[in-house]
UniProtKB/TrEMBL annotation:
Species per Swiss-Prot/TrEMBL record: Anaerocolumna xylanovorans DSM 12503
Domain ABC transporter: 7-247
Predominant subcellular localization, coarse grouping: membrane
Gene Ontology CC entries for this record: plasma membrane
Keywords for this protein: ATP-binding, Cell membrane, Membrane, Nucleotide-binding, Phosphate transport, Translocase, Transport
Record bears the keyword Cell cycle: no
GO biological processes: phosphate ion transmembrane transport
Highest classification ranks of the organism: Bacteria, Bacillati, Bacillota, Clostridia, Lachnospirales
Its biological purpose: Part of the ABC transporter complex PstSACB involved in phosphate import. Responsible for energy coupling to the transport system.
Domain of life: Bacteria
Subcellular location field: Cell inner membrane
Topology with respect to the bilayer: Peripheral membrane protein
GO molecular function, one term: phosphate transmembrane transporter activity
Name used for this protein in its record: Phosphate ABC transporter ATP-binding protein, PhoT family (TC 3.A.1.7.1)
Length: 252
């Protein structure tokens, strides 16, 4: 697997009004890997994740300074936000299928991007549901409401919906925190499978999860990245005392 850099973040500051939520973040995120963001509640993990597909643009009073590039192109200066989000998809904490059929959920993005032919949509829907490891469970109920399946299945439908627009990066914001252990393992296995094709960045409170699936880990504290490196190093030989305290549960 190449070590090609997907995102480069330089001196990134983010303010919600007067409150500085991110402080001088510098990070290179590698392609084809799973990068985990860990740290205590409120330390800025989700905020940082959302700067990578400009979801914070939608919040009033947000000010962002510094630079984020995707494949070397500045996402704040040289990208249309909609175009960016089609390359950098997102899966949220709570499964959030649209109140429509499973088929229409997955076909939603391609339709917006102009795919109209039924045969083409059928193909995308099947491929995406297969990639999201849920095809066999839903293939006989594609016309049923996406809200009528279990939470774990809903989350995989949401992942399929994200995959249907063929992004290059998938941002996952605590994607398993609302799920039972079996569904959690399914999503973890899925993430491991998907990294062959996609770059995945995941926010998680579950340290075992970060240890199990990620290649790189960044530890955040009060808006700063305290330590960033190979997951094995961060978990087994953290350099910073604060990282060690957090990893070993002595934090706070
Ligand atoms: N829309 C907003 N307006 C103002 N402050 C916000 C907003 N969103 C987040 N914050 C603040 O920014 C800080 C970072 O929040 P963020 O949600 O990024 O943290 P987090 O590490 O993801 O937390 P958690 O693990 O609890 O989800 C917190 O102090 C939070 O209260």
């Amino acid at each position: 697997m190449s070590d090609k850099v997907k995102f480069t973040v330089k001196d990134l500051d983010l303010f919600y009004g007067n409150f500085q939520a991110l402080k001088k973040i510098n990070m290179s995120i590698e392609q084809g890997k799973i990068t985990a963001f860990i740290g205590p509640s409120g330390c800025g993990k989700s905020t940082f994740l959302k700067t990578l597909n400009r979801m914070n643009d939608l919040i009033e009073g947000v000010k962002i300074e510094g630079e984020v590039t995707l494949d070397g192109v500045d996402i704040y200066k040289d990208f249309d936000a909609i175009m960016l989000r089609s390359r950098v998809g997102m899966v949220f904490q709570q499964p959030n299928p649209f109140p429509m059929s499973i088929y229409d959920n997955v076909a939603y993005g391609p339709r917006i991007h102009g795919v109209k032919k039924k045969s083409a949509l059928d193909e995308i829907v099947e491929k995406s549901l297969r990639q999201a490891a849920i095809w066999d469970e839903v293939k006989d109920k594609l016309k049923k409401s996406a809200l009528a399946v279990s939470g774990g299945q809903q989350q995989r439908v949401c992942i399929a919906r994200t995959l249907a627009i063929e992004p290059e990066v998938i941002l996952m914001d605590e994607p398993t925190s609302a799920l039972d252990p079996i569904s959690t393992i399914k999503i973890e296995d899925l993430a491991t499978e998907l990294k062959k094709q996609y770059t995945i960045i995941i926010v998680t409170h579950n340290m075992q999860q970060a240890g199990r699936i990620s290649d790189k880990t960044a530890f955040f504290l009060t808006g700063e990245v305290i330590e960033y490196g190979d997951t094995e190093q961060i978990f087994n030989k953290p350099v910073n005392k604060k990282t060690e305290d957090y990893i070993t549960g002595r934090f706070g």
